[in-house]
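Support request from a user on the community tier.

User writes: "When I paste my structure tokens into the form, the page sometimes reloads and wipes my input. The last time it worked, I copied everything first. Here is what I submitted, just in case something in the input itself triggers the reload:"
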């Protein structure tokens, strides 16, 4: 399963996303910051052959937007999480597949001292109880949950290169990091990539286009796979599909891909 912020799907498609999609082995792909209405996407991007797609654009045109691509037809689709403010904001969509619910999340980025940060805080306040309830409902039905996406929070110092310079900036504020701790400790989710890469810096998934951040690997690890515990224990490997060079990037984020063993009884 793969999660990636495409930083505008139409632009990404022109710069290499289509070729990446043709080669990926992922069965489910969660996209964030699509920034397009479905009708604005070329047919081969909106509904590629061999994929079932769910698109949740933002009511504010040209902003946000999440999508989920799955090789298997979803059993159910839900847009939003029951929020009057955010359900039409292109921030969350989820699908049910056999035994698992997969969500694509684009958490607001925020900006200290502005309404954007207040918006982020309101989103977090609503989303945490939803996550807890989702896990509880899934457990009652014998299902697992995976919420992939751009969470826009670096949890620990190991999750961004220049953490000292960012201690008072959105994305690494103490209260944001504490909220993410609650996602793991109270809501019952696991940081899959960190568990598969313990004790190391990164692996980063976002690098600013400014300066030589990508070349110097001066990035942030903000694109996360948050999974229920039993699913996390079935994660086999995780990788950030970092482009070979700056020129080959089709987004300022890189795909974060985790291989899970979700085979049912008797499957090979």
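"...and here is what came back when it finally went through:"
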């Amino acid at each position: 399963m793969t999660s990636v912020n495409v930083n505008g799907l139409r632009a990404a498609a022109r710069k290499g996303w289509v070729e990446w999609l043709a080669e990926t082995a992922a069965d489910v792909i969660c996209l964030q910051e699509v920034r397009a209405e479905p009708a604005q996407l070329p047919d081969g991007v909106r509904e590629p052959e061999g994929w079932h797609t769910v698109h949740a654009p933002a009511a504010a045109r040209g902003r946000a937007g999440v999508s989920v691509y799955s090789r298997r037809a979803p059993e159910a689709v839900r847009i939003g999480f029951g929020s009057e403010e955010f359900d039409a904001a292109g921030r969350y969509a989820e699908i049910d597949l056999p035994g698992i619910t997969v969500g694509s999340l684009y958490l607001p980025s925020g900006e200290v001292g502005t309404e954007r940060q207040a918006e982020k805080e309101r989103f977090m306040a609503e989303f945490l109880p939803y996550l807890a309830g989702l896990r509880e409902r899934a457990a009652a039905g014998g299902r697992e949950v995976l919420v992939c996406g751009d969470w826009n929070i670096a949890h620990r110092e190991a999750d961004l290169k220049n953490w000292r310079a960012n201690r008072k900036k959105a994305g690494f504020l103490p209260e944001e990091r504490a909220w993410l701790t609650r996602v793991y400790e109270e809501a019952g989710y696991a940081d899959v990539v960190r568990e598969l890469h313990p004790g190391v810096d990164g692996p980063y998934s976002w690098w600013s286009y400014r300066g030589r951040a990508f070349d110097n690997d001066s990035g942030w690890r903000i694109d996360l796979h948050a999974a229920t515990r039993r699913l996390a224990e079935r994660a086999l490997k995780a990788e950030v599909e970092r482009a070979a060079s700056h020129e080959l990037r089709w987004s300022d984020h890189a795909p974060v891909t985790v291989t899970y063993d979700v085979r049912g009884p008797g499957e090979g």
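Agent notes: The reload is a front-end session timeout and is unrelated to the input. The two ends are 18 Å apart (CA to CA). The domain at 2-260 is CATH 3.60.10.10 (Deoxyribonuclease I; Chain A). Escalated to web team.
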